[in-house]
Design a protein that fits this description.
eleven-stranded mixed sheet; 483 residues; globular; Beta-lactamase; six-stranded antiparallel sheet
Length: 483
């Protein structure tokens, strides 16, 4: 039973909106084959709902916990409050709670603003919400005082820490300036105009909505929020949130790279105002377990997932479905032509940020024990040196040098000795890529021959772990030393 006006969700076939049905089918097969616990998947393009699916026992009417997707709703309430002149994102957090007893407030606490809370740059070194949760059983637990009395180790606005307690403070500020809960404000400012019904939002013992978690709505309600964001805060004929605030809310305000070379790029693309940037140009509301409202302005799309992910299947799995299946399947023949062009003439790119810690120019030596053939027909590998623009391969058949490009093969001039035992000379091309799991991936191709050699190189201190794949020789793993 559809309980929303048809005008809110005008339907269309995927192909009518430039979405390939086979791409959506690929997403569903992927879900089936991996056993991923996806609860719903909705796809809207050009303001038309092209796909809506619920996985048993879930239905369109089943409310779902938003977890941290709640944060994006809180952010929009802050934007509306600012539009109404009730507050400014530049206001100091302490100014809203002058009666609170704070033991020796630090300069960092005094400097903290609403904007710092929005961008997860409060200056706290750890999430403050666990301390609030510990006090949840008390009948009069004062979450605001708990937050204000936590250490603020960093200058606000300079250090990213995902902090659900900071979002609680946004909810508490909304209640302080209006005398109403975040849910009551959402009902008036957002939910009633958008025909979102039956929402619930968990509270602290003092009745303040948690802000950063605890909102329960349906997937269709999530889609409406995505539509509101995509439209710059406009719903039908009403501007619910100013376009200036929505633009600011989807802009990267703080760096969130962890320094871990294996960090998922979608959690390292920047953080906005209670919104994450995606590595593929989109932005999203993001909740624990795989709750997503993904807004894709370049494609004029909104994609919604509810899920129960974690453990064997990471919570970012739905984002990978979008990248692997949906994006390549847009715009039919145009997408096919573009993909074919990208494969036939890929464009070289800058060295990835994640690769900058690799020891370029350092020689990786393989000791006597490692000087074994990589595959039964491959030459023995003595050393490998990956420079900023070229690779040098020292092996028992001679030394091979090839210039490379990032993300695209670079054709080297003229045939040169190959040192392979397969063919004496060949024109070489080489390409470097970065894989968050495998590290540096370097491919050397011998033109006109069925021969490609790929090196996957992971470096940990002075130790190098190298997986070598030779299409004519097989696969092996080598241990080396960086000198």
């Amino acid at each position: 039973m559809t309980i929303y006006p048809e005008a809110d969700f005008a339907r269309s076939t995927p192909e009518e909106q430039g979405v390939c049905s086979a791409a959506i089918a690929g997403m569903l097969r992927d879900i089936r084959d991996t056993g991923a616990d996806i609860h719903s998947m909705l796809i809207m393009r050009h303001s038309r709902l092209v796909f809506e699916h619920y996985f048993a026992p879930y239905t369109a009417e089943t409310p779902h916990s938003m977890f941290s997707c709640s944060k994006t709703f809180t952010s929009m309430l802050i934007g509306i409050a600012q539009d109404k002149g009730l507050l400014s994102v530049s206001d100091r957090v302490l100014s809203f709670f002058p009666e609170k007893d704070v033991a020796s407030p630090s300069d960092n606490l005094r400097a903290m603003t609403i904007e710092d809370l929005l961008m997860m740059g409060s200056g706290n070194a750890q999430d403050t919400f666990p301390a609030m949760r510990e006090a949840m059983g008390g009948p009069d637990a004062d979450f605001v005082s708990i937050f204000l009395n936590r250490p603020v180790e960093y200058k606000p606005g300079t250090h990213f820490v995902y902090n659900t307690g900071a979002t609680y403070m946004l909810s508490a500020i909304l209640t302080r300036v209006t005398g109403r809960t975040a849910l009551e404000l959402a009902e008036e400012w957002l939910f009633a105009p958008m025909d979102i019904r039956g929402a619930t939002w968990e509270t602290c013992p003092r009745g303040v909505n948690l802000g950063g978690t605890g909102l329960h709505i349906t997937p269709r309600d999530m889609l409406k929020m995505g539509m509101l964001l995509l439209a710059g805060g406009r719903w039908k004929d009403r501007q619910l949130v100013s376009p200036e605030y929505v633009a600011a809310a989807q802009k990267k305000h703080i760096e969130n790279r962890s320094g871990d070379p294996n960090q998922d790029p979608n959690w390292a693309a920047g953080y906005c105002y209670q919104i994450w940037r995606c590595s593929f140009g989109a932005y999203r509301a993001d909740g624990m377990g795989g709750q997503f409202i993904v807004v894709m302005p370049e494609q004029d799309m909104v994609v919604v997932f509810t899920s129960a992910l974690g453990g064997d299947i990471p919570i970012g799995y739905p984002l990978r479905l979008i990248e692997r299946w949906l994006l390549p399947g847009l715009d039919g023949p145009e997408a096919l032509a573009g993909l074919a062009a990208a494969l036939s003439a890929p464009a070289a790119r800058e060295k990835p940020e994640a690769a900058k810690g690799f020891p370029f120019g350092r020689r990786i030596e393989f000791g006597a024990a490692g000087r074994r053939a990589y595959g039964p027909n491959g030459p023995k590998l003595y050393a490998l040196t990956v420079g900023e623009e070229a690779v040098r391969i020292e092996q028992d058949g001679g030394t091979v040098e090839a210039e490379y490009s990032w993300g695209a093969p670079k054709l080297n001039a003229g045939p040169q000795p190959t040192g392979t035992g397969w063919t004496e000379k060949a024109v070489l091309s080489a390409q470097a890529d970065w894989d968050r799991e495998k590290g540096l991936r370097l491919s050397v191709r011998y033109l006109g021959e069925p021969l490609t050699v790929r090196f996957d190189v992971k470096v940990e201190g002075s130790a190098a772990h190298v997986r070598v794949m030779n299409t004519l020789g097989g696969v092996c793993g080598l241990e080396g030393v960086v000198v």
